[in-house]
Amino acid sequence: MGAALKLSQVRKSFGNTEIICGVDLEVRAGERHAIIGPNGAGKSTLFNLISGRFPVSSGRIDLHGEEITRLRPFEINRRRLARSFQITNIFQRLSVFENIRCAALYSLGYRYSFWHQLAKLRDAEERSDDILRQIGLRSRRDTVAGLLTYAEQRALEIGVTIAGDANVILLDEPTAGMSRSETEQAVELILRITEGRTLVTVEHDMSVVFGLADRISVLVYGEIIATGTPEEIRGNAAVREAYLGTTLDEMGEVVAASVDTAEPAPRGGGNG
Which of 56, 180, 217, 270 has the greatest count of CB atoms below 10 A from its CB? Predict the structure, then answer.
């Protein structure tokens, strides 16, 4: 199966400081690919480069074989790549349904127009209702998004991400700040939503990573030091060294125990 997303010698500098240092990465179409690494490794910066939020200093990014390196975020989105953020990014004052419908309109062929009545756009209504069903929020259809629980808001953001018919989805720490039960529900949702799509996710919770990923890439100080299946990454000596001697099995156990016994982490996740 071909590459859905390919990065070739991608670099990003801020002033004299190089944050992303010649990353080569290939994500196969239809796979779920996790990017892990210590805080400050450059994971969120990499997402910002892929989605066009930051310009690339050098290198090339291809989406389904087409170069997107210099495209603006909305142009990349229209090529069916969508992303979520560490901090929940939804329209707080719109209803759950309106959030989804806003995201669906462009992919259905609608552009800015003052004569269209949104309530009469049957295809937009049907797609929005179908996505609400997929993300488990049909009963919250008319609720103002800002009144949802944190886990529901994260589910809504995933719904917004796929509403534009994206086939490559970037999720930045989708379970950050969730309890163990919320995390389990989120993983089930992500598995269901990404069926038949390509997923790239940044995640600190090793139990989530090993529950989701077909392959894992490890980013350390702006460089990919290993890519492989979960089993290959577990046994990789360079990866263990990057995590200061802690095995990935031990990391997963520590994360799971801390989520079960402690208060949820601050909403919005950690630094990439």
Answer: 217
CATH at residue 248: 3.40.50.300
Look at residue 24 and tell me if it is in a domain. Answer: yes
Question: Residue 67: inside a domain, yes or no?
Answer: yes
Give the count of domains, the chain: 1
Predicted confidence band at 155 (pLDDT cuts at 50, 70, 90)?
Answer: very high
Range of 8's domain? 1-78+202-272
pLDDT digits (tens, 9 = 90+) for 188-220: 999 999 999 999 999 989 899 999 999 999 999
